[in-house]
Amino acid sequence: MNDPYDNDLIDIAIADKSPIVQSGLRAMFEDDGRFRVVAVTADGERFLDAVGRLSFDVGVVGWEMPYLSGDALLRVLRGREDAPRVVVYTGSRDLDVPRQAMALGAAGFCHKSDPPERLIETVLAVARGRMAFPYVDVRLLEMNPLAGLTDREREILAALAEGMTNQQLASALNISLNTVKFHLKNLYGKLGVENRAQAVAKYLGRARR
Questions:
Q1: Which residues lie across from 88 on neighbouring strands?
Q2: pLDDT tens sequence across 146-157
Q3: Rounded distance, CA 90 to CA 46, Å?
Q4: From CA 14, how far away is CA 84, in angstroms rounded?
Q5: CATH code linked to domain 144-208
Q6: Crossing angle of helices 70-77/44-53, nearest 10°?
Q7: Contacts by 51-56 with C-beta closer than 8 Å and gap 24+?
């Protein structure tokens, strides 16, 4: 990994499932003049391949990506000597994602709703060896049983509340029945419930509050 103090430019790699985000981030960093974009990838697997082939200071990665998600990517990178510092950049509404990212070894976090300047500042801080995370009121996490759910799990939970069957969920989300069952198992575990009726009750109770 390069030391940003020995190089006028900070080398970065980008991983995001959206081509629009990919091109926007590349343009933003290259126009800034303090960065050099050495790789842009569409998923975590390709980013991991870039880590093995290239040397760069900071990775700006999404949280929900195909093949290898942000949390899975951080688990793979944890402990690797060639791992770059990682900034998680996501539009997820899950209040628990910054905490999860920090626990898995990320060096920074920025939400896609933040001004572009915030992401620039976050990457600069991380490149200089600092941690850069937003303040999260942990009391909100404790009060909200849905805080630990991914966007897909929230989507499935809302569909359950509308009475959709597993087959209807699979068709609506264009995924297999086995994948639906996998998501439901994770969903029930996170909510601390045993079946869809209990999950829906917890969801509706939160909605009323």
A1: 61, 109
A2: 666 777 888 888
A3: 18
A4: 12
A5: 1.10.10.10
A6: 30
A7: 51/13, 51/77, 51/80, 51/82, 51/83, 51/84, 52/82, 54/13, 55/1, 55/2, 55/11, 55/82, 56/1, 56/2, 56/11, 56/12, 56/13, 56/84
Q: Which CATH superfamily is domain 4-127 in?
A: Response regulator (3.40.50.2300)
Structure tokens at 152: 């897909």
Render each residue's pLDDT in the chain as its tens digit; 209 residues. Answer: 544 444 579 999 999 999 999 999 999 999 999 999 999 999 999 999 999 999 999 999 999 888 888 988 998 998 788 899 999 999 987 777 888 888 889 999 999 999 999 999 999 999 999 999 987 655 544 556 666 677 788 888 888 988 999 999 999 888 888 888 988 988 888 888 889 898 888 777 655 54
Where in the sequence of the chain do the CATH 1.10.10.10 domains occur?
144-208
Residue with tokens 């069957």: 165
Contact, 92 vs 63, CB < 8 A? Answer: yes
Token digits of residue 141? 């996490």
Joined together, the tokens standing for residue 2 give: 């390069």
3-state secondary structure of 90: strand
Residues 6+ apart with CB under 8 A from 16: 22, 25, 42, 60, 61, 62, 65, 89
